[in-house]
Design brief:
The protein is an alpha/beta fold. It has 6 helices and 12 strands. The protein is 32% helix and 23% strand. The radius of gyration is 17 Å and the shape is globular. The strands form 4 sheets. Strands 6, 7, 10, 11 and 12 form a 5-stranded mixed sheet that branches. The protein has a 3-stranded parallel sheet with strand order 1-4-5, covered by helices on one side. The longest helix has 14 residues, at 93-106. Pfam families: IspD. The record marks 133, 189 as: Positions MEP for the nucleophilic attack.
């Protein structure tokens, strides 16, 4: 498992996300617990931070998520790697297993959920043409890849100056398809202050894997 946890959490304004607490635990603690079963756990931390946790290797992260994942990839040894967002604390074990199985089968996989809301184009601040939401999906993590495939995708991106918001985009840019598997709405990403209210509520009823 690769965990790029070096983000500053600017949109939340509460400091590095990895140390943000939900339900009395940091987001980093949630992520490490969700992957307690993993043979390999590598975590990228913000500059100036260091930790010691049994079975976990901590490395200094980069300026961006993409740089942090690349740093972790260089140290990873597993045939298949899962890349997860530390800001998604509520990971159901079944989702991780679906991604892992699909990554072994197809080389790359990502969990997705349906789009529940109406989608439109913003035309200069006015309600524009609707988009067919049935054709779109919301992408989550963990995303799974053959380690060598993802490393090749990152190296190509670095050579060409390509930046992406997730690793599946880099693999797709390499020309390799990414299989989709069923995600879980509870694995939403904590990005804005109001997300913390939802997270605190879910933490009260969340059952450990």
């Amino acid at each position: 498992m690769l965990l790029p946890a070096a983000g500053s959490g600017e949109r939340l304004g509460r400091g590095p996300k990895a140390w943000l607490e939900v339900g009395g635990r940091t987001l980093l603690d949630w992520a490490l617990a969700a992957f307690a079963w993993a043979d390999e756990r590598l975590v990228a931390l913000p500059a100036g931070y260091s930790l010691d946790h049994p079975g976990v290797r901590f490395l200094p992260g980069g300026r961006t998520r993409q740089e942090s994942v690349y740093t972790l990839l260089l140290e990873a040894r597993g045939e298949v790697v899962l890349v997860h967002d530390v800001a998604r604390p509520f990971l159901a074990p079944a989702v991780a297993q679906r991604v892992l199985q699909a990554a072994h089968r197809h080389g790359a996989a990502a969990p997705v959920v349906l789009v529940p809301d109406t989608l439109i184009q913003d035309v200069d601040g006015f309600y524009g043409p609707p988009a067919p939401r049935e054709a779109y999906r919301l992408v989550q993590t963990p995303q799974g890849f053959g380690r060598e495939l993802l490393l090749e995708a990152h190296r190509k991106a670095r050579q060409e100056g390509l930046e992406a918001t997730d690793d599946a985009q880099l693999v797709l840019a390499l020309g390799h398809p990414v299989a989709l598997v069923e995600g879980d709405r509870r694995a939403f990403k904590i990005t804005y202050p109001e997300d913390l209210l939802l997270a605190e509520g879910l933490a009260r009823v969340w059952q450990e894997p």
